[in-house]
Amino acid sequence: MSTDTSVEPRRPPVAAVVLVLTAVLTVLLIAFAWPAARSAPRDVPLAVVGPQQAVAQVTGALEQAMPGGFAIEPVADRAAAVQAIEDRDVYGAIVLDQQAPELLTASAAGPAVAQLLTQLSGRLAAQNPQQAPKVTDVVPLPADDPRGAGLAAGALPLVIGGIMAAVGLINFAKAGATRVVGALGFAVAGALALTAVLQFWLGSLEGSYWGNAGVIGLSIAAISLTLLGLEWLLGTAGLGLGAAVMMLLGNPLSGLSSAPEMLPSGWGSLGQFLPPGAAGTALRSVSFFDGAGAGRPLLVLGAWLLLGLALCGLGATRSRRVVSARSEASAVTV
């Protein structure tokens, strides 16, 4: 008569599972809904052209309408204001000309900010109808995507693409070097495909196809290699941690749907140091502004790429040490 001595693994109580799932759902809601619900201008750079007294009056009116919403930068004339917009130093400009007052916007830099400036201009004009400004979009979005919906939705595919690459390569490629090469290959292929969809089908991007693809490819590579390196060093926990940072912080804090200055204080700046936010800013700059303002976000993406390669290198070193230690232990045993 045989006795089954196997013990069934103890399962956690249903109540504990429910609590964990509730906590995860709550975190997801906070991560995605909180930045959008608290969206408001915070020190949005805005140029103003006009006499010093008039600039002071407009600054006071803007501060009264939206306290802390704008960082005013006086400039010499309209040409200087346009140049500041095209250099991505400001999001727009107010030209205080008694004969031809004008509001300059750049919807390509952030349609939410452009819309906000237009609405604010209307409110100010209502107080003085004779001085209603003309609205000029200096750097508009493409005619095929005037709201910038395609670009705004681009952060999530970048993150998911990087996570998919890491998970797929971990499961289907045993050798570490193969995983790294596979991640770089996927970054190139994925970038070419995503850029083709955004630029040629949806019409959401302009400028150089290869330049846009380069930004997207760098972003996917930075995310996937970082996740691969974390998994190599820390196992599944490292992969989960990296994916959570990219998805729960990087995506909602990217500012692609509005602008970094529209996010809660400090969080917009944090988002620009994560791959999705840096990718969004760099892509706007390369696609619509001839690369102006792309320097820092490209450096951020390059730093993440190097971090990913470094983590993979550390993981490879650790793996070799583990294999060597096991070989020595086996030799001693024999």
UniProtKB/TrEMBL annotation:
TM segment ranges: 12-34, 149-173, 180-202, 208-225, 232-250, 298-317
Top-level taxon: Bacteria
Keywords noted in UniProt: Membrane, Transmembrane, Transmembrane helix
Protein name as it appears in the record: Integral membrane protein
Record organism: Kribbella flavida (strain DSM 17836 / JCM 10339 / NBRC 14399)
